[in-house]
Amino acid sequence: MSALPDSAENGAQTIAIGSLLAIIRPIFRRHWLRLAGGFVALVAVDFLQLIIPRFVKSAVDGLAGGTATAEGLVRLSLAVCLVAVLVAGLRFIWRYLIIGFSRILERKLRERLFDHILRMDQPFFERWTIGDLMAHASNDLGTVQMACGMGLVAAVDALVMSTAALGFMIAISPKLTLIALLPMPVLIVCTRILSGRLHHRFNLVQEQFSLLTEFARATLVSIRLIKAYTLERFQQGRFNDLGQAYVRSNLRVATIQGLLFPIATLVGNVGMLLLLYHGGVLVIEQQITIGSFVAFVSYLYMLIWPMMAVGWVANLVQRGITSLRRIHRVLDQQPVVCVGPTITLPVGTDHRYLCRRLSFRYDGAGRAALEDIDLEIGPGLLGMTGRTGSGKSTLCKLLLRMYPVADGLLFFQGIDVNRLSQADIRERIAYVGQEPVVFAETVAANIAFGKPGATLAEIEAAARAAAIDEDIRSFGLGYDAVIGERGVKLSGGQRQRLALARALLCDRPVLIIDDALSAIDVETEQQVLRGILSRMEGKTVLLISHRVNVLRHADRIVLLDQGRIVDQGTHEHLLNHPFYRIMVEKQQGDA
User: What is the CATH number of the domain that holds 447?
Assistant: First the structure.
């Protein structure tokens, strides 16, 4: 089970940093004023913190030299309190502005990612699992938000604090500053080595999370099947294996993180040890005052935080870049169904399809799913049948523009579909698939999904046409009854009729029903058929079915076999074809 296409995974390492930054750069530009205000407050906090040791130096020198007074100490204390209040207020401001920006960036990226996924076509969803897409929209976005929030703050804070602290330290004693910074190259080398390993390990963590999410989703979706086959322990074992792999990957990341912080702390403490010895010697030799020594120690403590921040920022940045690469792979995907210069469809014309030697082959398939299809689908009821795998559903997908076709093979209203926008075509089609989609909403909301502004009267009329109105009224709350997840409270036939009512409510000029009456009994089937014919009079209906009682009402029936049209005509005409005749005889015998 693979969460990502191999090609996408291999290409992840070659994405340039500039391409990654291009994803978030427009958001930074749009909110530059907010960021500028936040960083001004952040820098002000840093400089205010750097002033406090100067107050301490003045107090210590005064006490050591015997020049300190009670009034002077009170003034210094009040100054420290004032600085502390200013620091608290400014810290709130930069947190509100900068961390708030990171949340805005996360929301904008999530909206862009969701919008991009909605615009993708069927081949995209055959290559990417839902679990991986969910991981992108949760873990990966959260990691990018941390990198652009606290990571950015820590980086700027460490840069400003370390630069200013070094300036004050050099002003006190250049020699002592050089001695205190002797261990610094060790931190730089270790950070560089560990950060490179962190990227690879965190990428593996995100992939494991994708697998875990996809497995949990698939398990919950098929929970009834799992219980029917008593596979709860088996699924639990597989989930446990995935969970252990995820934990192992996280522990490998934690190993890197666990090394970065102790190394930074060790480097800082070694510098402090050198300072205590050599600084003490300078105080004894009276080359610096004891107040200067205390201030120098305070500045070195302030420098230890930037040293530690190097490891933390490196961790956040590497994780952020890894997640941004994963998001970039999704955003870089383009629909396979390309549209050339668009032509606006004329209003009120005959909505018909024309196939001219239409052929289609799935990627990696051994044979063509459709081959040399010459067919006109116009106003009226067109039936279609054939053996399983003969290409019926594939033709529906092509009519819905889910897969690409070459120029000159498929026309809608006399115009090549490649010159029409997908939305322009789909807005004229209502579709009911083999597996009806039902949401965990009320019955009314499910039916009105394709027409959100529909009135209750319109919803009830569509339900009556689909012969499900009586079933709905038998529910406790009628049209306000909430259907369980994926329609678990409904039978297969009820789900099919609910989906059909949704399509009929849209009142579009073309209706495609892909074997969506298979779970309905014969009596209800005839009621549904009458409802379809009454609602779709003068419009185009393509009805795919293996039920002869349905097909015999079609104006014309098309018989497919191995992707080719082997015969077409009325019910009486097709009785001369062996396959159709056997199908009729078998169903009549079963009846």
Answer: 3.40.50.300
Q: Give the domain CATH number at 188.
A: 1.20.1560.10
Whether residues 288 and 318 fall in one domain: yes
Per-residue pLDDT tens listing for the chain (591 residues): 334 444 344 444 456 787 888 889 999 999 999 999 999 998 898 888 877 777 777 777 677 666 767 777 778 788 888 888 998 999 899 999 999 999 999 999 999 999 988 888 888 888 887 777 887 888 788 888 888 888 888 888 888 877 877 887 888 888 888 887 777 777 777 776 776 676 677 778 877 887 888 888 788 777 777 877 788 888 889 889 988 888 888 888 888 767 777 777 777 778 778 877 887 888 777 787 777 777 777 777 777 667 666 767 777 787 788 888 888 988 988 888 766 667 777 776 678 899 999 999 988 777 889 999 999 998 889 999 988 888 899 999 999 988 888 888 999 988 888 888 888 888 889 999 888 888 878 889 888 988 888 899 999 999 999 888 888 888 878 888 888 666 667 888 888 889 999 999 988 899 999 888 887 888 888 888 888 888 888 889 999 998 888 888 899 999 999 899 999 999 899 888 888 888 888 887 765
Residue 464 CA to residue 492 CA, distance in Å, equals 18
Q: How far apart are CA 556 and CA 543, in angstroms?
A: 10
353 touches 412 (CB < 8 A): yes
CA 497 to chain centre: 32
Q: How far is it between the farthest Cα atoms of the chain?
A: 120
**Does any domain span residue 372?**
yes
User: Is position 578 within any domain?
Assistant: yes
Q: Specify the DSSP element, H or E, that contains 280.
A: helix 232-284
Which pTM value belongs to this model?
0.71
Contact indicator for 274, 300 with CB cutoff of 8 Å: no
Q: Where are the beta strands (DSSP E) in 235-391?
A: 353-360, 370-377, 380-386
Place of tokens 């009512």: 501
Residues 6+ apart with CB under 8 A from 252: 201, 204
Query: CA-to-CA distance for 178 and 170, rounded, in angstroms?
Result: 9
The answer to whether 169 touches 299, Cβ cutoff 8 Å, is: yes
| Rounded-to-integer distance, Cα 189 and Cα 193, Å | 6
Range of the domain at 229: 17-331
**Both tokens assigned to 428:** 């004229």
Assess whether 205 and 103 both reside in one domain. yes
Residue with tokens 């950015």: 152
- For the chain, the domain total comes to 3
Query: Are residues 479 and 459 in contact, defined by beta-carbon separation less than 8 angstroms?
Result: yes
Q: Where are the alpha helices (DSSP H) in 507-551?
A: 522-535, 548-551
Is residue 11 in some structural domain?
Answer: no
Residue at 578: amino acid letter = P
Instruction: Indicate the burial class of 360 (C-beta count within 10 angstroms; 0-12, 13-18, 19 or more).
Output: buried
Residue 348: count other Cβ atoms within 10 Å of its Cβ. 6
Task: Please list the residues that pair with 61 across neighbouring strands.
Answer: none
Q: Report the 10 Å Cβ neighbour count for 19.
A: 14
